[in-house]
Amino acid sequence: MKKKKFNIIEMNKIFKSLINTMIPESKIELMPSASRAIKISIFLKNILKSNKLKKKINKVLITTLKNNKKINYSSLGIKIAESKIMEKDLEKYLLESYFSSKLVQKQLLKKTNKILSSKKTNNKDNLSLLKLVKKSRLRYKHI
Prior knowledge:
Oligomer: single chain
Largest sheet: none
Number of helices: 7
Order of helices and strands: HHHHHHH
Shape: elongated
């Protein structure tokens, strides 16, 4: 049997569903899915630089393809992700790409600013309360 070689378009489709399964969109849509945050073509270039990982990816894709008669690339990516064959190999690249993307950093910054602004207002409230207590009678100064 001839070895099947995957072209870039097929690999993009497979990896899009693969990384979406690994990092899905949050239910309340605070954090984007991996395929929305990462440029898949650049992600693939980074992964395929390693010959060892490239060989493993091709081996996994070919063995998974042998088990399935019809080629549906999105379901193929989901099956690979659910089998967790390549999870350990891809997680370093995926997490690095995901959290360094502009979309994720923007969402994290929004959430951070929201939390910090609420803490600042709480601190101001506490300070004003302490000032009132200090101005009150002597028995309340030690609180």
